## 1
Amino acid sequence: MARMSDLESVFCRTAAWRWLARRIVVPRVLDRAIGPEVLEIGCGSGAMAAEVLRLRGGDITHFTATDVDPAMVALAREQLAPFGDRAEARLVDASRLPFGDQSFDTVCSWLMLHHTIGWQAVVADAVRVLRPGGRFVGYDLPDTVASRAVHRLTRSRVLMIDAADLAEHLAACGLTDVVVAPIGLGGAYRFTGTRPEAT
Ligand SMILES: C[S@@+](CC[C@H](N)C(=O)[O-])C[C@H]1O[C@@H](n2cnc3c(N)ncnc32)[C@H](O)[C@@H]1O
């Protein structure tokens, strides 16, 4: 299991990261309503969860933010405290989600799949916990000179994911309306797919 480097973990707690989440990422990635019950995998400091709740909170009845790193979960609990019972942070490995099948309306994954190395299994488990009609949404980074340089600098263990490979795997996991498209931010791409309604 891969964890973030110290440098990355410091950066994702900064005001600059929260600004990026609020002004760029959420508006460009969340193209429609999410929820009402939301799971976030690899939530880090909880910065994205807090911004999603601030910007789209009206759609959300409960937000479960999860991460495999206890230090991150502790930070996420602090970030989410203002939202009371509507949000919680839990220690969870995204490759073994401790939730029943079809438990959530939306699963979010923000810049975390490439940290999991075994990203295909993580995607499959995210799809398993989605209700029919629910959506898997997020963004990630491809293998570029810039992303390689950042991870060399931060000494993170990562496996960058080609956008076409991700699109193929989302469809192979049974999602429909799959979109993987650039968001105009250093090669980053957004992705989404919908679990079909039961027939
Ligand atoms: C670059 S950070 C992104 C954090 C957050 N999503 C954000 O955008 O601010 C990647 C996060 O993924 C988490 N992570 C890596 N592998 C994981 C796994 N198998 N299960 C859950 N979280 C994981 C790391 O601990 C880290 O907090």
## 2
Amino acid sequence: MSQLVIENLEVAVKGQAILKGVNLAVNEGETVALLGPNGHGKSTLLAAIMGNPAYSVTGGSIKFDGKDILQMTPDLRSKAGLFLAMQYPSEIAGLNSADFLKAAMNAHREKPMSLFEFYNSLQNAYKDMGIPFEMSKRNLNEGFSGGEKKRNEMLQMRLLSPRIAMLDEIDSGLDVDAMQIVAKAIEKEQRRGAGFLVVSHYARLYGIIKPTRAAVLINGRVVVEGGPDIIAKIDTQGYEWIKEELGIEIEKEEGKPMNTVSIGVCATKARVDDGKK
Ligand SMILES: Nc1ncnc2c1ncn2[C@@H]1O[C@H](COP(=O)(O)OP(=O)(O)O)[C@@H](O)[C@H]1O
Ligand SMILES: [Mg+2]
């Protein structure tokens, strides 16, 4: 069984300490929900696990199957079985989607796939994700809508069959139908035995994919870990109870352009219903 183990992880971005000693483990076959107010380091954690060079690991360790992955480049981490569906997938001008997917899939194999085999799996994957096959001819994410970008990330997950997949707000910006498609794709990989680390603010996705555990990241640390009941508690009460029960002062994010939802509303039921009606 594969296991991703993060110990005392410290990560800095542009010289600023963001993660301040994260401890977390994800086993193959289990689904862990990662919650926390915006700007507290969830995406930073996933980016550091995948090896994004903008995120410098200044302390601690990340091991996958007992191997120190901090020594591995992102492509080797991918080949080892890790996958990240990004919160903000990049648009890559000049890179044809089908070419990109073929290169990624072949990089995971000893011998390149036959064109027939490739197109067969490509067509099935596009169909499963409810994306018109025509889109495989377009440049990667270029001009895609928010929802199309998210579904395109899931398409990559399907084709690469990771052992542990990290999904960063895969459900934001999706309408109800697209959310069902994404949830189905996750369930399929769960049945195959993959492990998941899923960041979402919405109980709706978690209600379908049923995490086995939940962890809450606040001020750059995992401060609460437990059963899925934590998700329902945050969904109805937000994060105030953590402040009260653990005496943790939740740092507010200030002037952070990338994050548009503020703490206090990001995980309340009102906002979930608002966004989906
Ligand atoms: N590429 C980056 N450049 C500058 N600051 C960043 C970058 N990525 C993250 N940060 C900062 O790190 C902090 C944590 O952000 P992030 O990990 O995106 O939080 P979350 O995903 O929990 O909302 C924020 O203060 C954010 O502005
Ligand atoms: Mg984020």
## 3
Amino acid sequence: MQQKLRVGLVGYGKAGSAVANVLSSDARFELRWIARRTSSGNPQTHPGTDIPIIGLESCPFAALFESDPVDALVDFSSPESIRLYGEEIRRRGIILISAISAYTEDDLNYARSLGGDTRVLCSPNITLGINFLIVAAKLLRKIAPFADIEILEQHFKDKPEVSGTARKIAETLEVNGERITSLRLGGIVGHHEVIFGFPHQTVRLTHESIRREAFGTGAAFALTQLADCKNGFYTFDDLLLNLMRSELLETAKPDNTQDGE
Ligand SMILES: NC(=O)c1ccc[n+]([C@@H]2O[C@H](COP(=O)([O-])OP(=O)(O)OC[C@H]3O[C@@H](n4cnc5c(N)ncnc54)[C@H](OP(=O)(O)O)[C@@H]3O)[C@@H](O)[C@H]2O)c1
């Protein structure tokens, strides 16, 4: 039987707690602990489990890795954390999945340098669905460069800015940001749609966010994929494309061809 991957999670806010729900109930992983800035006044274990929630003010990363070793660290905290655990994961070869969306170029360069000694993935958008949508849209753009493209994003009433994901889609497809339409209504968690207008047909690629647990599904995918990678710095695209490439090669094997081909 394959050994479970021992995982530590840093960050236990809106996203981190949902990620903990997913990782703690996935049989491929053993979520060993959850670290946050401070543990005062909060439950000491993740609800329904005996996974400890540890305040880093009383137990810094070096002590944590020493007392309860992990194979991988998942970061849903804040940009500064990477400097707190970086050298420890480098020294110990711990896999890093960082979901932090607001790294500076300096932070990203540091993360890339960690890739020299371990496996690192940084993904400012870690949902599997959105990343798949982006790859699929990129492919369709290549196949049909003549199609008109519009991007539609819908979010809850109080979201002030244009969705970063919609801007990333526009950038990836090399279309002007003006092609993004934003609708703000009710409590929509997140809807992204890329509409390809062909002369005689329309293709719509749509992603709907339902719950923050989707971040956990993305982190779980990244953990399983990175476990089979060499040391290096990866993006979510890299992992998806690697998987697609090997699937395509598998389908193209000679024994899959039809008679007479
Ligand atoms: N890539 C993606 O798709 C994606 C999706 C969602 C969120 N995110 C990212 O995830 C991060 C958290 O988002 P959120 O909405 O969950 O924020 P949040 O609700 O404010 O929670 C932040 C959590 O991180 C902890 N934290 C902050 N700085 C820390 C440090 N230096 N060391 C240890 N723990 C620290 C906080 O600890 P305390 O509880 O003790 O204050 C808190 O538990 C953000 O950077 C966000 O950009 C990424």
## 4
Amino acid sequence: MSEVLPLGEVPPEPGVLPRKMLASVIRPGREGDPLAAMQIEEVDLPPVGPNDALVLVMAAGVNFNGVWAARGKPVSVFKMHGEPFHIAGSDASGIVWKVGEQVKRWRVGDHVVIHCNQSCGQCPECNGLDPMACSEQKIWGYETSWGSFAQFTKVQAQQLLKKPKNLGWLPAASYGLTYFTAYRMLVHQAEVTAGDNVLIWGAAGGLGVFAVQICKMLGANPIAVIGGKDKVPLLQSLGASLWIDRKDFPNLAYHPSETPEQSRLRSEDCKRFGKRIRELTAGRDVDVVFEHVGQETFPTSVFVAKKFGKIVICGATTGFNLEFDVRHLWMRQKQILGSHFANAYQAERANQLVHEGKIRPVLDQVFPFLEVARAHALMAANQHKGKIGIAVQCAADEKPFSQAAGEKAA
Ligand SMILES: NC(=O)c1ccc[n+]([C@@H]2O[C@H](COP(=O)([O-])OP(=O)(O)OC[C@H]3O[C@@H](n4cnc5c(N)ncnc54)[C@H](OP(=O)(O)O)[C@@H]3O)[C@@H](O)[C@H]2O)c1
């Protein structure tokens, strides 16, 4: 076997390992803009522990955590895992290439997608409460160093899920992190039920496209917020008929240290925004707000949630320090619910819905492996819709459904 596999090809013999692999690597000295931070290098293959699997990455998915990792903010990934290198990437589809001696459920040659939660598997939290509560819980490819932007990735075998046969490698690599996160937020944390009105910020973004689909599947009414009317056709294709363009509310965003005049203008836009929601919902209020934007939108989210309503939040793209009028929260007995990724059982259940064709990935653009950094720069600039895929060992122009390179006959 040669030093490094040629990109875009599936080696004929599963399990035969090259000496080195290509990876998109971030180093401590160059954190910052993704274009400078993420560089292609030739590196050794990761070691595989007894409960691990080594996966040949056919395709990888881009997530916002790659942008955070490149920037080194708000926390440097090197403080989290202590390694002198970081290969980002928390989504992949691929072929199992090697398994540790304790792994029973998977074999070399299996076609898989990967969920991104790692935990110890041995503590009471892992075995009775929820692996997300494990003291060693980590997000693979963000809090760990061997992510998916490489020809091979090392994962815990419990992270493997069957790849849907109805999808090519690229769409299969695009949905895990954001879809499973949205699933836990809406199904388990906020317990959305039929008839609920759910306000979804960033509805055409990575989390949002799945939040919309999950709401439709549950019989709830998604109210999709978008930053531009060019995103309406995408939302309609997902079944959302109620949408609001946030650009029609130019003073809605909260920025710290606002002047009394700015505060007055924001309050006015906030009320207009609430009125717009009621126009769309025949006078009903919002049962659940789906939050991940953070500082700029959170005061509006707390304001528009109905009495006893819920705000479920998993991120804060615009800032982590949230400021809002807490009287709206306590007087009207609203709840704020934190949520973070999903456990393996939730990921498995959610993945089944993709197998059944009830939830579909929304792949916006595909980049070749050598352009991982450019794909992240695009996401950092909010110039994408849905998800971005990276072709690693699959062809960049693979057919979107089935018969992808290396796919076994069904
Ligand atoms: N904790 C977890 O497990 C977890 C999992 C996934 C993601 N996250 C976090 O959640 C956030 C979103 O992730 P994503 O994958 O959905 O990212 P994304 O694909 O970039 O989508 C985010 C959407 O937010 C909207 N947005 C951006 N700036 C905004 C602003 N100032 N006001 C209102 N809306 C704004 C944009 O839509 P419009 O411009 O159309 O409004 C954008 O499409 C990130 O911070 C990510 O790190 C956390």
